[in-house]
Write a structure and sequence with these properties.
345 residues; 7-stranded parallel sheet; 3-stranded mixed sheet; 13 helices; binds nicotinamide-adenine-dinucleotide; binds thymidine-5'-diphosphate
Amino acid sequence: MKVLVTGGAGFIGSSFIRYVLRNREDIEIVNFDKLTYAGNLRNLEEVSTDPRYAFVRGDIAEPDHVGAVFQQHHPEVVVNFAAETHVDRSIEDTTPFLRTNVAGTQCLLEQSRRSGITKFIQISTDEVYGSLGTQGAFREDTPLDPSSPYSASKASADIWTLSYFKTFGFPALVTRCSNNYGPFQFPEKLIPVLVTNAMEGRMLPIYGDGLNVREWIFADEHSRAVLMALDLGRAGEVYNIGSGHEKTNLEVVREVLRIMGKPESLIQFVKDRPGHDRRYAIDCSKIQREWGWQSAVGFGAGLAETIAWYQSRQDWIQGIKDASYLSYYDRMYTRRDETLSRLNR
Ligand code: NAD
Ligand code: TYD
């Protein structure tokens, strides 16, 4: 089976490609990625010479690029990981989120429908459901109520995907996963910011009171569930994916510091993110029941493995922390108060 994976040079897309090529001999992968700041072919060094793997650089929002990769490779299945993914960047500039996440998904759906794709998996997020209070968990039928431009764009893409099923009978489905962590995550998301800053003895920035809750899943576990969606997922359905490991951001930062043997004095509370969702939690009983899937990696074990990976990959970190990263970091953290008040004006 030939699978077109979009966004395969990013954090989770590359985990999926490595995971599939390690575990399945019957699958060939074409990785179609624009290589934005978040795309990194070093994430795929392990598979780059595998004859079942090919890379094509292109933009999911460009019909000519998408048309060309379909014409050249004739994929049977599409898994769409490609997206702009960082909430803070979506607050700074919403435009790339509309273009890639919404128009890009529509462009990919349209080409896929015309090409007779047999399954289209839209990779989505629990953030489309909005924020929870202290109790309860998101179910697949929880109404969509996104808060950030990022989650609004992902919710829109989900609706577009499901509309292709309802209108055209196109075999598309949506998976919605909770917060991922693990090796190869770009150091703009919480856990790699904490780990790489602690390695450099820098302050660890915690937004607001640090009591926002996220449900953390090891990325390879997400990949394992997406592979099950490829085999077992039904068209027109939504599937939640989660681990049950709910943590406040303060619990996360303390655990990182404990594993790394660093002092809690590195924690610095900084100005909160506007529209910051308080709590996410996922009810994934549907995939437990239908596919027998269950997360098998504990948070402590996954975090220790992640930290050890960053500690052993200074080369990877140095490759990421270039001038454009340092400028991003300066805007987001060093001049955080100034940047947020400018955005709020
Ligand atoms: P990432 O930012 O690490 O990678 C995104 C990838 O998409 C990059 O390789 C980038 O180059 C590529 N890309 C961006 N725009 C593109 C375009 N127009 N055309 C082609 N490629 C493009 O993201 P990630 O964390 O790996 O997330 C992957 C997917 O999983 C996203 O759809 C995201 O919404 C979803 N998701 C992420 C999380 C999480 O915790 N990171 C949780 C749930 C769902
Ligand atoms: P993030 O990794 O950006 O994921 P998301 O916002 O998509 O859930 O953030 C996870 C949590 O950590 C969220 O509550 C915001 C918070 N956070 C910080 O406290 N400090 C940081 O430097 C970052 C990036 C996030």
